[in-house]
Design the sequence.
C-alpha cells in the first residue's frame, strides 16, 4: 500500500468445449461453447488513466441469478469502460447475449459492482449496477434495472433514490430493521488524494461537511432504509460512518454475533481501519471491530463471511496484497516502518498488517489465523469467496488476484522513475503517459483455490483443480449453472477474456449435495437473510442467504450444500421473520423447495449456559507500563523488540500466614510491587526499597531464603535492551524482616550486565543453602550474541560467588536463555537444570552433586524459539516431563526440519556495528527474509553492489557476502515452532507430543499446572502472545489463554471458552499458581503493559 501511495505522489507531476482438463475439478469452458465472450477491456486515455484514477485496474464484478425464473442461473458481467453484458442461460452451459435487447446497457460512467436483487418484491430479480470513476466528462450515476418479467429491463434508479450514490464500489441488500423489505448499504471509495490526508482521523466528519472541492466528495458510505420503495439515507442516525477517509473495497453482511440480526463488515483500503457494524436490533449499529478482532488486514480489499469450520458461526476472510513467493515479495513489496505503525495506532486506526486475514468466530470475539491456515499470502488480491468447491462438506476459499500493471514494482520505482524525473529536469518536458505505462511491468498470476483440510488449515489446490490460469482477476461469483449439484464459477478479468469454470464434482460419487430453494413473501420474495443449517453429528453446515459477496459481485440465490459422505440428521431454515421449520429426513442429491408460508414455529434460541471451570477474581493490581524505547531504532534488522518482555513474577509466603504473596516487577521507571494475600484479596504493601529502585527494569524474580533465617527474601534480575551503564543491569537482593517488609541487601550479587530472563534458586551443591542460576536473554543492544549466565554459589550467609566456569562451564555457551527450572529429570534424587531459549534446543544439565554436566537427550534435535519450560510428572509414571512453550505456527515464516530458519550474526560491513540477518530455507538454500531496502539501510555496503531488486531477490546470503564473512558469522538455527509436551521415557529419551492446534495459533510464554476439574489428573493452563514485531511480521495475538484437560492416558485436550472461563487479552509473560491456607486454588498471570489477572477454580 505504501508504494502505491508513493507511486501516485511521484507521478502526479505527469499528465473442445473447454480449454481445461475435464479430469480436474473445474473445467475452463470455451467462449465458443458458452457464448460468453466477455472481456473487461480498460484502456488508458487522456482523461482517464492509471495516473488520474487510482482504481483504474480494480476491475469489475460478476453476478449470477435466475432473471426469468426458468430454473437456470443467468450471468451478468461488469465492464468498467465498455458495455456491461447480460447472458441468458439456455442450458448445457450455453448462454445467449441479451444485453442489447434486454435494455441493461444504459448511460454509465465507470461501472464497478453489481447486485441481483428483487427490489420491488414482484418475484423477479432486478439488477443494480454501481458507478464510480472520476472522468469529468461522464455522468456518474448508478443504474437500477427493474425486471419487466419478459427478459427486458427498465432503468429506474432515480425513482428509488438509488442513482446518486457517490463514488461507489458495491452495495449490499438486506433487511437490517426486520420490517420485511430490503434496505441497502452503499459502499463508497473516497476519491480524495490519500497523500493529502496525512493520516488524519476525520472518521466522524461526514463527506458533505469536508471543506474540499465537490468533485472530491461522494466518498462516504451510506445506509439507505427502504421506505415503501424509496431509499432514505439514515446513515448518521444509524451509526454508520460516512467520512472521506473511508476507502471501501468490500462489504459483506451476515449474522456475526448469533442474534439473527444482520451485521455488516466493511473492508477499507489504505490507512482507515475496517468497520464491523453490530446490529443493535433497534435500527442502529455499533462499530466494534476493535472489540471483536485483535488485528486486521492493512489494505483490505474483498471480503466474505461464512462458516469455514462447521461450528455454526460465521467467520470472516479479507484479502490484501502480500505476495507468497520470495522473489515476487522482494521485487514488488514495501512495508510500513514501526514508527508509522505506532503513529496510526495512536490515531485510532487499529492494528493493521499487510496480509490476508481469516477471522475465526468464537461467538464473542475473533481469532485471526491466516498464517496458520496457509491463506495469508495471495498477492494483489480482490475477490474473496468462501464456498464448498468440491462438495466434501467443508467450505473452501477462492481468491481472485492480479494487477494489470505492477504499480509497486521496486525496480520500476527505483530506476525508471528516477530516470524519468532526471529527464524531465533536463528537458523540461513531461514524458508521454502511454510511454510510461508501456514500461510498467505486467505480470499475470494464477488465482488461489484453497482446499479446506478440515483442521483450520488450507492447501492451495488451484493447479490440481484446474484453476491456475495466470490472469488479472477481480470480481467473481458462484452458482450451479448446469443444475448438477455443484457450484460453478464465473470470474471477471481485466484485459483478458472472463473465465467460466464448470465444476465437475458430480463425477466424484462419494461426495453428495443438497440444494435448497427458498420462497419468501411480501417484499422479500427471495427470503434474503434466511439461514439454512444442515446438522451432521456435532457439525453444522451453515449458509446465510446474502447475495452480495467477495469483490463487487453477487452470487446465486439457489443454495447448494456439499455434504461429502456425511449423514445429515436434519435441515433447519430460520426465516427472516423469525419463523423456523425443520426437515427430519433429508434426501441427498436432491433439491428441496421451502416456503416461508409453511413455517409456523417461532425460532427459539438454544440456551448454552454452562458453569465455567475458572472465574476471574477482581483485584486492584497496578498496571505494568513499559517505558518509551524502540529497539528498532538501534538494531535495524531484528524482527522483534526485546525491551518489552516484562514483567517479572514471584510467588511465596513472605509473612508466614499460610497464604502465598506476589511480587510483580516494574518496567524501567516503575517500581515493582509486592501484594499481600488475605485469602483471595490482595493489597499492595509499602516497600521503600523497591520504590528506590524504580529505574531498574525488573525482568526476573524469585522468592528464596537467602540468609537461612526462615523467611523468604527477594532476588530480582535486571534487564531490558537499552545499551546503557552496567549499573542498570545489576541483580538485586532484598532481605525480608520476617513480616514481609524488604530492605536492600548491602551484599553485591554478581551481575553480567545482560538482559536477565530467569532467576532459579536451588541448593545444587547440597550444602544446605540456596544457590541461584541467573539466565540471560540477550546482550543489551546486540541481539544474536550469546550472553553470559551466572551460577551463584551461596556461602550460607547470603554471599554469592559465580562458579559457572568452574562447575558448569558449558552452560555459558548455551545461547539466549528465556527460561529455566530445577527438577530431577533422571530420578537420582538431585534436581537438574533444564533451560530453554531463543534459537536453541531445550537442554538438560545433569546435577552430579559437584557440577552441572550436559545430559544427552533427543531434545537436542528440537531447536526453536522457546519461551518457557515447566517440569512435572504429567502421566503419573514417576518421571518428570516437560511442557515447552514455543512461538507457534501462526507466523509469516515457519521453521521446520526440512526448511530451517537461520540467524547469522556478524559485523557484516566491518563498521563496528553488529548486524543480524535471518534467513529462510528455499530449495535447500538460505535466503534473507529482509527486503533489499531494509538490508541496505543497515548495511550500506549492499548499496555499493548496485544490485537491482530483481537481482537481490535471487541471491542467497552466501551470494551476497564473501565466504569468509559467512564463515566467521555466529550461526544459529531453528527447526520447530510448535509448543510441545516432552514425555520423559528415561535415559534421555523424550516422546514429543505436539499440543493441540489451537495452542499453536500464538506463542506460549508461560504455563501453570493444576487439577482444574478435580478429576485427579493434572491439567495445563497456558498463556502467551507477542506483539512487538516489525510490521511485516504482524503480531502474535491469537491466544486468550488455553486450558488443556488431562486424561488417564496422559493426553491433553483443549477446553474452549466459555467452558474454561479463561479469557485473557494481552501478552501474558508469566503465570504461577498461588497457594492459600484455606486450600483455595488460585493462579496469577502477569501481562506486559497491562494489569495482572487473577483466576480461581469456580467451586
Sequence:
Amino acid at each position: 500500500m505504501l508504494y502505491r501511495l508513493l507511486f501516485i505522489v511521484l507521478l502526479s507531476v505527469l499528465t473442445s468445449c473447454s480449454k481445461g482438463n475435464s479430469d480436474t475439478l473445474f473445467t475452463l469452458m470455451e467462449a465458443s461453447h458458452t457464448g460468453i465472450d466477455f472481456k473487461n477491456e480498460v484502456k488508458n486515455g487522456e482523461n482517464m488513466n492509471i495516473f488520474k484514477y487510482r482504481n483504474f485496474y480494480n476491475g469489475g464484478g460478476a453476478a449470477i441469478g435466475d432473471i426469468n425464473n426458468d430454473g437456470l442461473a443467468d450471468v451478468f458481467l461488469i465492464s468498467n469502460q465498455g458495455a456491461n453484458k447480460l447472458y441468458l442461460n439456455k442450458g448445457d452451459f450455453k448462454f445467449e447475449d441479451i444485453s442489447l435487447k434486454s435494455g441493461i446497457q444504459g448511460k454509465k460512467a465507470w461501472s464497478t459492482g453489481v447486485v441481483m436483487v428483487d427490489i420491488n418484491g414482484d418475484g423477479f430479480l432486478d439488477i443494480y449496477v454501481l458507478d464510480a470513476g472520476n472522468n469529468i466528462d461522464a455522468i456518474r450515476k448508478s443504474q437500477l434495472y427493474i425486471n419487466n418479467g419478459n427478459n427486458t429491463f427498465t432503468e429506474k434508479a432515480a425513482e428509488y433514490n438509488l442513482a446518486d450514490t457517490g463514488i461507489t464500489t458495491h452495495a449490499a441488500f438486506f433487511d437490517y430493521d426486520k420490517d420485511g423489505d430490503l434496505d441497502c448499504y452503499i459502499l463508497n471509495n473516497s476519491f480524495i488524494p490519500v497523500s493529502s490526508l496525512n493520516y488524519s482521523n476525520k472518521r466522524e466528519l461526514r463527506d458533505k461537511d469536508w471543506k474540499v472541492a465537490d468533485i472530491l466528495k461522494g466518498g462516504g458510505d451510506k445506509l439507505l432504509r427502504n421506505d415503501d420503495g424509496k431509499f432514505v439515507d439514515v446513515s448518521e442516525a444509524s451509526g454508520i460512518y460516512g467520512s472521506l477517509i473511508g476507502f471501501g473495497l468490500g462489504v459483506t453482511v451476515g449474522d456475526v454475533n448469533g442474534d439473527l440480526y444482520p451485521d455488516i463488515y466493511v473492508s477499507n483500503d489504505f490507512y482507515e481501519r475496517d468497520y464491523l457494524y453490530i446490529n443493535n436490533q433497534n435500527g442502529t449499529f455499533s462499530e466494534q471491530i476493535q472489540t471483536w478482532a485483535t488485528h486486521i488486514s492493512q489494505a483490505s480489499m474483498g471480503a466474505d463471511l461464512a462458516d469455514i469450520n462447521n461450528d455454526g458461526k460465521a467467520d470472516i476472510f479479507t484479502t490484501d496484497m502480500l505476495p507468497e513467493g520470495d522473489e515476487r515479495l522482494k521485487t514488488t513489496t514495501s512495508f510500513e516502518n514501526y514508527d508509522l505503525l505506532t503513529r496510526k495506532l495512536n490515531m485510532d486506526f487499529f492494528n493493521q498488517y499487510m496480509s490476508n486475514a481469516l477471522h475465526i468466530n468464537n461467538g464473542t470475539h475473533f481469532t485471526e489465523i491466516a498464517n496458520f491456515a496457509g491463506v495469508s499470502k495471495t498477492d494483489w488480491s480482490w475477490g474473496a469467496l468462501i464456498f464448498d468447491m468440491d462438495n466434501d462438506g467443508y467450505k473452501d476459499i477462492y481468491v481472485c488476484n492480479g494487477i494489470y500493471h505492477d504499480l509497486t514494482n521496486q525496480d520500476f520505482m527505483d530506476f525508471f522513475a528516477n530516470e524519468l524525473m532526471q529527464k524531465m529536469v533536463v528537458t523540461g518536458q513531461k514524458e508521454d503517459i502511454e510511454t510510461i505505462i508501456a514500461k510498467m511491468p505486467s505480470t499475470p498470476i494464477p488465482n488461489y483455490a484453497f482446499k479446506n483440510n478440515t483442521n483450520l488449515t488450507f492447501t492451495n489446490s488451484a493447479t490440481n483443480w484446474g484453476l491456475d490460469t495466470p490472469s488479472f482477476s477481480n470480481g467473481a461469483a458462484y452458482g450451479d449453472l448446469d443444475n448438477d449439484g455443484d457450484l460453478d464459477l464465473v470470474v471477471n478479468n481485466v484485459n483478458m477474456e472472463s473465465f467460466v469454470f464448470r465444476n465437475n464434482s458430480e463425477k466424484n460419487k462419494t461426495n453428495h449435495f443438497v440444494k435448497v430453494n427458498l420462497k419468501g413473501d411480501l417484499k422479500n420474495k427471495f427470503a434474503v437473510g434466511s439461514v439454512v443449517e444442515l446438522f451432521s453429528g456435532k457439525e453444522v453446515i451453515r449458509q446465510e442467504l446474502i447475495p452480495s459477496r467477495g469483490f463487487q459481485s453477487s452470487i446465486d440465490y439457489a443454495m447448494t450444500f456439499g455434504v461429502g459422505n456425511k449423514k445429515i440428521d436434519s435441515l433447519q431454515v430460520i426465516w427472516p421473520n423469525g419463523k423456523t421449520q425443520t426437515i427430519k429426513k433429508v434426501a441427498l442429491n436432491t433439491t428441496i423447495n421451502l416456503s416461508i408460508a409453511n413455517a409456523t414455529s417461532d425460532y427459539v434460541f438454544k440456551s448454552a449456559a454452562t458453569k465455567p471451570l475458572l472465574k476471574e477474581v477482581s483485584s486492584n493490581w497496578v498496571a505494568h507500563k513499559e517505558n518509551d524505547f524502540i529497539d528498532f531504532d538501534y538494531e535495524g534488522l531484528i524482527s522483534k523488540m526485546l525491551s518489552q518482555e516484562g514483567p517479572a513474577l514471584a510467588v511465596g509466603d513472605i509473612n508466614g500466614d499460610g497464604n502465598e504473596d506476589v511480587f510483580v516487577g516494574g518496567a524501567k521507571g516503575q517500581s515493582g510491587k509486592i501484594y499481600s494475600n488475605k485469602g483471595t484479596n490482595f493489597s499492595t504493601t509499602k516497600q521503600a526499597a523497591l520504590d528506590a529502585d524504580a529505574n531498574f527494569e525488573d525482568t526476573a524474580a524469585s522468592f528464596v531464603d537467602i540468609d537461612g533465617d526462615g523467611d523468604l527474601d527477594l532476588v530480582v534480575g535486571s534487564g531490558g535492551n537499552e545499551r546503557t551503564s552496567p549499573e542498570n543491569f545489576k541483580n538485586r537482593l532484598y532481605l525480608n524482616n520476617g513480616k514481609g517488609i524488604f530492605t536492600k541487601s548491602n551484599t553485591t550479587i554478581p551481575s553480567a550486565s545482560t538482559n536477565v530472563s530467569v532467576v532459579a534458586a536451588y541448593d545444587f551443591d547440597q550444602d544446605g543453602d540456596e544457590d541461584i542460576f541467573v539466565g540471560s536473554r540477550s546482550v543489551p543492544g546486540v541481539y544474536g550474541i550469546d550472553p553470559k549466565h551466572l551460577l551463584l554459589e551461596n556461602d550460607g550467609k547470603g554471599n554469592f560467588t559465580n562458579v559457572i566456569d568452574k562447575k558448569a562451564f558449558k552452560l555459558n555457551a548455551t545461547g539466549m536463555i528465556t527460561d529455566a527450572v530445577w527438577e530431577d529429570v533422571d530420578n537420582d534424587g538431585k534436581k537438574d537444570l533444564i533451560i530453554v531459549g531463543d534459537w536453541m534446543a531445550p537442554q538438560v544439565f545433569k546435577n552430579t552433586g559437584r557440577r552441572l554436566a550436559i545430559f544427552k537427550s533427543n531434545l537436542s534435535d528440537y531447536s526453536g524459539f522457546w519461551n518457557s519450560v515447566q517440569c512435572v510428572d504429567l502421566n503419573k509414571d514417576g518421571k518428570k516431563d516437560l511442557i515447552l512453550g514455543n512461538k507457534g505456527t501462526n507466523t509469516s515464516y515457519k521453521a521446520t526440519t526440512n526448511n530451517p530458519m537461520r540467524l547469522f550474526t556478524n559485523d557484516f560491513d566491518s563498521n563496528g556495528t553488529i548486524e543480524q540477518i535471518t534467513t529462510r530455507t528455499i530449495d535447500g538454500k538460505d535466503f534473507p527474509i529482509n527486503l533489499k531496502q531494509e538490508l541496505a539501510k543497515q548495511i550500506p555496503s549492499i548499496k555499493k553492489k548496485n544490485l537491482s531488486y530483481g537481482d537481490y531477490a535471487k541471491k542467497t546470503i552466501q551470494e551476497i557476502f564473501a565466504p569468509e564473512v559467512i564463515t566467521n558469522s555466529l550461526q544459529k538455527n531453528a527447526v520447530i515452532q510448535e509448543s510441545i509436551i516432552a514425555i520423559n521415557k528415561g535415559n534421555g529419551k523424550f516422546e514429543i507430543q505436539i499440543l493441540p492446534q489451537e495452542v499453536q495459533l500464538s506463542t506460549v510464554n508461560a504455563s501453570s499446572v493444576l487439577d482444574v476439574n478435580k478429576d485427579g489428573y493434572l491439567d495445563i493452563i497456558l498463556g502467551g502472545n507477542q506483539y512487538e514485531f516489525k510490521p511485516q511480521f504482524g503480531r502474535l495475538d491469537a491466544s486468550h489463554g488455553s486450558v488443556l484437560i488431562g486424561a488417564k492416558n496422559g493426553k491433553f485436550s483443549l477446553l474452549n471458552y466459555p467452558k474454561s472461563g479463561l479469557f485473557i487479552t494481552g501478552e501474558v509473560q508469566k503465570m504461577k499458581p498461588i497457594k492459600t491456607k484455606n486450600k483455595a486454588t488460585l493462579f496469577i498471570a502477569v501481562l506486559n503493559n497491562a494489569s495482572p489477572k487473577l483466576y480461581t477454580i469456580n467451586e
Notes: Confidence is low (pLDDT under 50) at residues 5-17.
